[in-house]
Amino acid sequence: MKHALITIGCTREYIDPVRYISNESSGRQGIALIKSLLKFNYKVICLHGYLQTKQIVSKNVKFIFTPTADEMLREAKKYKSIDLGIFNAAVSDYKAKKYNKLKIKKKNGLSLKLTNNPDILRSMSFGKYKPKVTVGFAYETNDVFKNAKKKLLSKNCDYLVLNFPTAEDKIFNSKYNNGILIGRSGDFLNLGNVTKTIFANKIVKYISNRKN
Ligand code: C5P
Question: Which has fewest Cβ within 10 Å: 9, 33, 40, 98?
Answer without folding.
Answer: 98
